[in-house]
Amino acid sequence: MKMINDSQFEEEVLKAKGLVLVDFWAEWCGPCRQLGPVLEEVSKEFGDKVKICKINVDESPATAAGYEIRSIPTLFLFKDGERIDTKVGFNSQATLEEWLNSHL
Q1: Active site residue: 13, 19, 22, 32, which one?
Q2: Residue 38 in contact with residue 96, Cβ under 8 Å?
Q3: Catalytic residue at 32?
Q4: Are 26 and 58 in contact (CB under 8 A)?
Q5: Do the Cβ atoms of 58 and 27 come closer than 8 Å?
Q6: Are 18 and 48 spatial neighbours (Cβ–Cβ below 8 Å)?
Q7: pTM to 2 decimals?
Q8: Which residues contact 75 (CB under 8 A, 6 or more apart)?
Q9: Could you say which DSSP state residue 103 is in?
Q10: How would DSSP label each residue in 23-86?
Q11: CA pair distance 92, 98, nearest whole angstrom
Q12: Which pLDDT does position 15 carry in this prediction?
């Protein structure tokens, strides 16, 4: 899992090949903090098949505003730079793994 900011978003997500899951989160958000360990496990499970990036909406407001993030956590799934799916709110590890597998 990689922490990214506004200036890294294009390189790390939009120019990346394959699947990239982006977690829009904030330190003060309870469900976001709950999701962190779940994403760590998902990252271990999928290894190189899915790149997982976290972007803090307080530290990187331009990207969050550009994608009209209204509630967090919001998860975007990109494939070869194109946004293909979205999940909002806390999701279980099983739900996230099923979601990712459906796009592999």
Answers
A1: 32
A2: yes
A3: yes
A4: yes
A5: yes
A6: no
A7: 0.97
A8: 21, 22, 23, 24, 86, 87, 88, 91, 96
A9: T
A10: EEE-TT-HHHHHHHHHHHHHHHHHGGGEEEEEEETTT-HHHHHHTT--SSSEEEEEETTEEEEE
A11: 10
A12: 98
Would you call 3 helix, strand, or coil by DSSP? Answer: strand
**Contact predicate 79/19, CB 8 Å:** yes
What tokens does 64 get?
């969050």
pLDDT of amino acid 39? 98
> Is the CB of residue 91 less than 8 Å from the CB of residue 40?
no
Q: Confidence band (pLDDT; 50, 70, 90) for 57?
A: very high
Which residue among the candidates 4, 19, 22, 29 is catalytic per the annotation? 29
Distance CA 39, CA 48 (A): 14
53 is catalytic: no
Task: State the average pLDDT over residues 65-83.
Answer: 98
